[in-house]
Design a protein that fits this description.
By secondary structure, the protein is an alpha+beta fold. The chain has three helices and 16 strands.
């Protein structure tokens, strides 16, 4: 990654992590209070931003997670001010961004952010066990007993039934990386009536063996 690009990513991630620690009396003011800063960053970066996600830094913007063991709460916005689940502005609580700079990552070009709507393909999990840990994350391992293991950090409630979950592959480590993990958003379906619609419930890093590549991925909207 070019140094200038890396520095910009570190800048907005550090600012958003710091901002998320601030106590705001009314949680629905969370996106409003930082909108001016987001607009200035977007102008400086010469790119568009939607709900705190920059389009040219889309993948790194999406990979936020809960910073504490304390669970996040979904903010209840008015119908005309809804914030999508893939934005950290939709929840109340501290956030952090995973460190993925130790290896080069191939980012998924199929993820699109257009007119404030995120479109992506999802993949099912293989048969696996999701086991909560004391630090607030969950270990994910094959039900067949494979030694390979990944992790997931749910935003709110831990979901241990893997059959109810799917993943959006945001990027994958290049093959020269020791673990070669897939960086994913963990999602769950909320509607199949007007197309397939999912909402984000967490983020994680999984080995290829835990993702289903035998079937075609599902193209979906994220709300």
């Amino acid at each position: 990654m070019h140094r200038r690009r890396r520095d910009k990513i570190r800048l907005f991630q550090d600012l958003f992590e710091r901002y998320s620690q601030l106590g705001i009396t009314n949680p629905t003011d969370r996106p409003v209070a930082i909108s001016g800063l987001v607009d200035r960053l977007a102008e400086t970066f010469k790119m568009r931003a939607s709900h705190g996600v920059f389009d040219d830094y889309l993948h790194r913007s999406l990979l936020w997670h809960r910073a504490d063991t304390e669970r996040m709460q979904r903010i209840q916005f008015a119908p005309d001010r809804q914030v999508p689940s893939w934005s950290w502005m939709a929840v109340n609580g501290r956030i952090a961004y995973p460190k993925v700079e130790c290896c080069e990552v191939e980012w998924n070009s199929e993820i699109r952010l257009a007119d404030g709507e995120l479109q992506a393909t999802t993949r099912r999990l293989q048969q696996c066990k999701i086991e909560p840990r004391d630090d607030g994350a969950c270990d994910v391992r094959s039900a067949a007993g494979s030694a390979e293991m990944g992790w997931v950090k749910f935003d709110r409630t831990d979901i241990i039934d893997a059959q109810t979950l799917e993943c959006v592959v945001v990027g994958r480590d290049v093959e020269t990386c020791p673990k070669h993990m897939y960086h994913v958003l963990v999602v769950t379906p909320v509607s199949r009536r007007e197309g397939v619609v999912f909402e984000r419930v967490g983020v994680g890093a999984l080995p290829r063996t835990l993702l289903c590549f035998r079937t075609r991925p599902v193209t979906a909207r994220m709300v």
